[in-house]
């Protein structure tokens, strides 16, 4: 596989679950390092979760308390409904929903601004064994996201890990440029403004 080649992604289906956890640490890497070196393995690290009916303020506090920038949105563990990121909390989506529905930040719920499960980009866990950190960086750039979910196939499929742009940056010791790619019509309209 070419070191700059993006990995293929797929959209998640209803019924995708989160893998259970246990300690992991982040060692320095290069773009040629194995991709698995930068994946947060959810069999080793407990997934940070939140209910869709929690407020955005509660989500923000949960992120701060747990030292993360992304929470898995789950109604009943371990079934995943979507993700909410720190960008979602104070970004364009939050502003548009707030204006459209005449809601203040403290009145909005996670469900109002989260990215639904079926809109999430994922890569198969099995592909990471043959991929490099450079492949993951190319994939993040290709899909225009700060996070990729790593899915272990099975019945049901389960989220085995997370690849985070900020985690890769920490381990590389340098920033990575990723331009957000619109995924729906509202985001395309917003990008054109």
Topology:
Layout: E1 10-11, E2 17-18, E3 39-41, E4 49-50, H1 56-66, E5 70-74, E6 80-85, H2 86-90, H3 92-101, H4 110-113, E7 115-116, E8 121-124, H5 125-128, H6 133-143, E9 147-152, E10 158-164, H7 165-172, H8 185-192
Describe the structure.
The chain has 193 residues and is an alpha/beta fold. The chain has one domain: Roll (CBS-domain). Helix content is 32%, strand content 20%. It contains 8 helices and 10 strands. The chain has helices at residues 56-66, 86-90, 92-101, 110-113, 125-128, 133-143, 165-172, 185-192; strands spanning 10-11, 17-18, 39-41, 49-50, 70-74, 80-85, 115-116, 121-124, 147-152, 158-164. The strands form 2 sheets. Strands 1, 2, 3, 8, 9 and 10 form a 6-stranded mixed sheet that branches. Strands 4-5-6-7 form a 4-stranded mixed sheet. Residues 188-193 have low confidence and may be disordered.
